[in-house]
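Project channel, design review

CF: Before we commit to the Thiosulfatimonas sediminis constructs, I'd like one complete example in the thread so the newer folks can see what an input/output pair looks like. Taking Endolytic murein transglycosylase.
RD: sounds good, go ahead.
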Amino acid sequence: MRKFFLITWLIVLSLLAALAWITWQGFITQPLSKQSESIVLVVPKGANAKQIANLLHQQGFLAKPQLFVWYLRYQEKQHLLKAGEFAIQPNFTVDELIDALIKGEAVRYEATIIAGHTFAQTLQQLHALPKLKKELSLEDIKGLQKAFTLSGEIADKYPYANLEGRFLPETYYFHAGDSDKTILLRAQQALNDVLQAAWEKRQADLPLKSPQEALVLASIVEKETGFAPERAEIAGVFVNRLRKKMRLQTDPTVIYGIGQDYDGNIRKKDLNAATAYNTYQMSGLPPTPIANPSREAIQAVLQPNQTKALYFVAKGGGQHIFSETLEAHNRAVQKYILNK
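CF: and here is what came back for Endolytic murein transglycosylase:
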């Protein structure tokens, strides 16, 4: 009888050992989850292996969290896990999961600065990104200028004028918890690099005395057209007008000059208003950029088309008709604007 019980007991132990082996092999070789979508795992600072395992288990990505803890301890890696946001794929094995948590390759998010936006629009857009920390405030204009090492008098009507055009429109990547200031500092450096490189290769004899003047004109070109093939031609028109001491007479500067009172329409009184930005009433360039210019607009201003055109008018679809004489321009205005 004793021999029978001993044999039975050995069989049971063997079966349990086999079951444990199968479970263990399944744990380390099978995918983490049967779900089809990846998840973003947020690991708080100071979280231990058990807490991380439970977070995964709660999201359906780790059926046996205690095995994960034991496995980490067996490998002596429980102290190597990093905090942050991690993209976890459902087909990860447990070893791939551990690698991801140790390497700390956190999820990256996109922040796009749009060409033609003013500084206020740019910061408001960044503040709409939930993963980006808000370090800057539109209410603290002196603080904004200090943050970007900019100076200049702050005018009541144009409080952000010294901040306009300073940030290169691009898509920037960031991790959760990075700040708006971090993104804008990178964009500021990117713009400085692009502007300086373009300035050093500029056409000879341009009527632009400094990179700052090129930036101002590029911001105008950016606002005048969203049709990329026309940027260099429009830049050529403005360069011709500057050479001839003609006023630029460009509507985007009038709109910036109107400021917060702009309601979507430009009236005769607006064209006659003597603002700091109204190029219908002033000669040369306005005092600051009026928006963020793209690298293509900067390039267009410093490599403008060699054209005789002095005028242009919108013909629809974002495109323009260019004219060399006022008479031809007036005919184009009559055709494309007044007869609509």
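RD: helpful, thanks. The radius of gyration is 31 Å.
CF: Residues 27-103 form a domain with the Dna Ligase; domain 1 fold (CATH 3.30.1490.480).
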